[in-house]
Structures are given as C-alpha cells and as structure tokens.
Amino acid sequence: MDEREHSEQLRVGLIGAGQWAKVIHAPGIAAHPGTRLTSVWARRPEAAAEIAQQHGAEVAADPEALFDSVDAVAFAVPPNIQADLARTAAQRGKHLILEKPIALSVEAAEQLAETVSDNKVASLMLLTRRFAPEVRDWLAEVNQTEGWQGGSVRWLSGSLLDAKFADSRWRHTETGDLFDVGPHAIDLLDAALGPVTGVHAVHRTEEAVWQLILEHEGGATSTATLSMRTPIRPSINDLSVFGKAGHREFRGASTEPPACYTALLDDFVAMIGEGRHQHPLDVRRGVHLQRILESARDLAAAGR
Q1: Within a domain: residue 12?
Q2: In this structure, is residue 302 part of a structural domain?
Q3: Which of 62, 77, 168, 170 is deepest in the core (most CB within 10 A)?
C-alpha cells in the first residue's frame, strides 16, 4: 500500500478487547481496504496490547487518547459502557460502529441518538445477519410481496454455556438472552413484516427461554423464541413469514460473521465518504429496538 492509499484510509479505534473484538472487529478493520486499525483501548491493557500488536495498532492510555487519534470508533464493550463512551466520541465528531443493544435503557439510547444527530456523525449497528447478502436478498423478495399476516423467528443456542462468555456479566443476568439475541430476532421480524408497534405478550421459562408475541404496523403479528442457554448444536436461527402469498422461510445465513462485518465496513466507509449520516441500521434503529426490548422486559416482570 502506498502512502496516498494509507492516508485515505479511515482511521478506526477499537474500544474493547474481548472475544468479539479479537475475532471480528480487529481483523475486519485491519483487513478492509478503506479502514486502518489505529488504536486500541480496553480496561485490561494487556488484552488491548495483544490485539494492537497483531494488527500494527497503538495502545491508547485511555478513551480520550484514542478519540484524539482516530476518525471513527468501533465498540466491543457491554452496552452500559458503550452508551456513555459513544456519546463522548460523537461529541468529539467521531463516527460510530455500535454493538447491540446500543444501551441498557431507552433513555440512554435516546441520548446517544440525539448526540449522534446533533454532531452529524455516521453510525452503524452490528446486526450481523442483516449484512449477509442472502438475508438482504430474502428480505428484498419478501418486501416486494404484499399480504403478509404473520411470521416467526427462532434464535436458539447454548452460547452462554460456553466458557468464552463466562466473564460477560450483562449476558448472564436474567434479561441477558433477551438483550443479546433479541435485537437480532426483532430486527429481522421488523424488516420482514413492517415496524413492530408493540409487544402483546411475553413468557420467560425458568431455563431462560423467552417467547414474545409482537404486533406490527399494518396488522401482522409475529412470535420470537430466544435462548442462549439451550444446549443445541448447531444453533437454530430461522425466520418465516406467511400470508396471502403463501409461506416463505429462511433457515440460517451461510455468510460467516467476518464477511458480514466486511459488508458493514463497506457501507460505513461509503457513508462517511459521501457525507451521509443515515442508514437503515444506524443508531435510530438501535433506539427502536431498545423500546421493544424494554417493553418485553417490563411485561415479563409484570407477569411474574
């Protein structure tokens, strides 16, 4: 790569050094032709140093130092930490790659979205499956057909039984499954059947299996079954819709997460290069999903 190409790359800082940062964020940013991993910060300096050394980046002394050296920031930290740091980054004019959920409360999500808007920065959420080409094609076909009356999604795995997530405290809370895989599932149903306007019913089993009934704009209803603590191998990720045009089913994306992340970076670099600040999967999408998640959580708590 010559000096001109290097200078035109988007300088990206990475906050966080956990499993997802190691296997998705860092290698994806370092390998993409439009981005350069410039700086890494994590609460554990040794973990940040390990990632930085692998990809030719610097280790930042603190988040402020990272913000000083980059054009954009990718987050791989718990949602409560992400919300505060992302607001500060946006106030400094930094573009954002956000993990889901974007926060742990609607209030924090709305504050982040307002800051992003006020500072005219680009933002994208890492809703992995939405960047898979086969998912995009399936949704495009579904959206061209009218008369859908309902649908369902199943997102089931034993991820939280794996030792690699043992230190992820927010995932191991009572609502961890809902707030981790819920954004993926609800986003897909919303994209297929139209905006979710309400949560009709919620049930959570003692084994942390969540079942939601959702209402959609236009009259469709859908169901979501979610769990990260069910010992299923391979995991189940399927989506279906039904209505006047019959039945359409999508079973698992074949595109692996690293390739989905590359597609996200393609969109992210294009947005910034063209001066665009809006995208179907930007921070506003995060606020919409946050409202649904909180409604589901509150309805489950009220039904105990």
Answers
A1: yes
A2: no
A3: 77
Give the separation between CA 201 and CA 214, rounded to whole angstroms. 7
- Residue 38's SS3 state is strand
Reported pTM: 0.93
- CB of 125 within 8 A of CB of 285? yes
Q: Which two tokens stand for residue 291?
A: 């409202």
Mean pLDDT of 38-58: 97
By residue range, what is the domain housing residue 99?
Answer: 3-128+258-280
Q: Give the integer Cα–Cα distance in Å for 254 and 251.
A: 9
Q: Is 147 helix (H, G, I), strand (E, B) or coil?
A: coil
Alpha-carbon span 221 to 150, nearest angstrom: 5
Strand partners of residue 58:
39
What's the token pair of residue 139? 């949704």
Give residue-wise pLDDT tens across range 168-189.
Answer: 787 878 788 999 999 999 999 9
Whether 167 is in a domain gets the answer yes
Beta bridge partners of 140: none
The sign of the CA dihedral 96, 100, 103, 106 is positive
* 139-178 pLDDT, tens digit each: 999 999 999 999 999 999 888 777 776 677 878 787 889 9
The domain tally of the chain equals 2
The DSSP line for 239-294 is EEEEETTEEEEEE---S-HHHHHHHHHHHHHHHHHHT----TTSHHHHHHHHHHHH
Task: Report residue 179 CA to chain centroid gap.
Answer: 11
Local structure of 1: helix, strand or coil? coil
Q: Which tens digits make up the pLDDT trace of 53-77?
A: 999 999 999 999 999 999 999 999 9
Which pLDDT score, from 0 to 100, does residue 166 have?
65
